[in-house]
Amino acid sequence: MADNKSDIYKTILKPSKEVLFKDKNSKFFCYAFPVKTEEDIKSHLENLQEQHQKAGHFCYAYQIGTENIVYRANDDGEPNNSAGMPIYGQIQSFDVTNILIVVVRYFGGVKLGVGGLINAYKTGAQLALEASSIKELTINIEFVISFEYELMNKVMRIIKEKNLNITNQKLELDCEVTISVRKKDAKAIYNIFDSIYKVSIKKV
């Protein structure tokens, strides 16, 4: 991975449209959702269970995080590793994170066998990802810069010159500005502010 790519990750910002895949009378409804917490995941699963009350299986996989990765694959009653892991394999194949993929199955009376299930869940996850708009985002680090009011112009000039993104500010006698910096630039930006007398900078 080239250095300028080391702080870039791929994700989706809005849910995919519903995709339907059929195999031997079984119906597989496939979805991808952007998620950041376990609560987000629980809420999407509950909504789908409400929507598909007669479905037999809600198999899913998710991955959260850009550096400390958390993931899980769930077969929801299908044979071991025949559903959740094939779905998770597609998350890895598309190289996306902060994402939940759910494949909802209605059994159609004909058994697919483990090989058939692996193929169906893998295909379902792939279709959900292909129906999603995948975006590249940067991993950002937030710093709080603290300084006295008389240093405001100096600090603001650097922020403007370096084209830094301010996410929060409190400009009184004691000022605090929160900035968001791309991970690859973080060290250099930290050093600039750290070297100014009476200015302190710390990671959020």
Automatic annotation (TrEMBL):
Gene Ontology cellular component terms for the protein in this record: cytoplasm
Similarity comment: Belongs to the IMPACT family.
Impact N-terminal domain boundaries: 24-129
Name of the protein this chain belongs to: YigZ family protein
An individual GO BP term: regulation of translational initiation
A Pfam short name: Impact_N
